[in-house]
Amino acid sequence: MLGFIYFGFDAFNHLGKKKSDVFNTIQFRNKEHVVKKMFTGWSSIFYLTEDGSLIHFGLSSEKTDPVLCSLEHEVKNVVCQWKSTFLISVDGKLMCWDEDDFSSPPNVLNEPTESVFVTEVAIGDMHSLALTNDGTLFSICKNKIEKLPFNLVVNSVCCGKEHVLCLTVDGKIYSYGLGSRGQLGHGTTENEETPRVVEALEGIPIKMIATGGWHSVALSTIGDIYVWGWNESGQLGLPASISNKKLSEVVTFQAIPQLLDFPHDAIIKTVSCGSRHTAAISEDGQLWTWGWNGHNQLGLNKLTPVDYPNCVQIPPEYKVQNVICNYWNTIVVV
Description:
mainly beta
């Protein structure tokens, strides 16, 4: 059975229970529910339980009472950002709630077929995107989706607050949107209206991408991490002004992807970004975190930011399987 560890912001009773090192059940309506998956946003956590129920804890319709979400389709993924909540059903339907009234069924935005269905949703402040299994990108606007006129076959997509990264089927990264902090990776702070290949990473096969608020991360097929964008809290893992360093050593932002030097030559297998922090799991099962830490989202039992990868102490009887960051929190799956 999967277990979960939660680090970070919990001002709206996200967890629905007292924090503990590892948990796999939640208390709801005087019953223990076994948790299958967790999905988190700024003020919400959704628990998908073993019996297929979706339970919301956190801020909803100006209340913090837990809610059993009304569903008409079996759900496999939830993406919640601020007041936008999107769901993907097991058969590829894209759904959303108009408001945060989870007691009403979400609206269905597409009609999937056996050959074409939604596989991913990526949400930022300026972009809301859906990706189908055939590699087509759609924008989500006013409860409908529209195909974007990009000649790309996309394998994965993610959104920062104001920028977008696309990973194509041939392992290349394209970016567009706001470039004010170097988050597009083109060596400038210029904006891009349409996807542009990140030339610095051409020839390096990439298997995974992640975006924070204004920073970006790429993971290569051999386990190397490349970072670029804003670094004011050390979220790139590069020297920041938060440390006692010479001004000449400080990296305010990095406009071209840079290889991140990991302690002990760790090989990374997965990575995730919060608003201003980053987390990764190495092949040997170690959890690494760095960046802003105002809510202890780094899991280091201190509230000071860190500008280099730190190994988080997880109870040795648990094997770290995955890590998911969002805004000011981190979920570790063990």
